[in-house]
């Protein structure tokens, strides 16, 4: 959701820079911003605080940043192409079987932040494409604490939410029949570890920062996260993931999706 469907990643960036400036520190570099994107609790990490060298305790900075984001998240807006893509997918059918597309949301964001981010009518309409029982957020009781992206659990739970709401005579959807759309490196790895195909739609800053490592990222092998279970990862150029510059570049026909005119 964040940075893929709505502009919340840019808002988080602005809020972080506001606090850094308050304490006389420099703004986030492109490299540091790229490392923080899509990672739960990243501004509380050793990596961030070793870089920032803030004159205040981490707890204070975290609380102030939370308040900054609380004030700003109500300004979230849909990103270009998001509404069109979700509208099309809700109307689309599998070209071979005729089956409709089943959509779920899997986001590290927590419930209180989610409510703020859908404050605007256009953002609320966008996220309404996902039925409530098919939204898996970072504080979902089905998700064990600390098991957010890049761990695959959130995508596997999202798949369970799809299968549990299908008609009784429908065949369960398998991981290799799923397509994950992600903007973050952690999310790409989570999708690959879940055994799903992945489309990476990175923020331009993220794309530039990791241009030389794009193949590794698409395989889930960025090397940034050390969580073990490497058997879950993909292989370079295995055709199971790709990168596109925006949601407007999504190729429906490539994935056997027919959208009625």
Automatic annotation (TrEMBL):
Signal peptide: none annotated. SUPFAM superfamilies: HAD-like. Pfam families: HAD_2. InterPro entries: HAD-like_sf (IPR036412), HAD-SF_hydro_IA (IPR006439), HAD_2 (IPR041492), HAD_sf (IPR023214), PGP-like_dom2 (IPR023198). It comes from the Eukaryota. This is Uncharacterized protein.
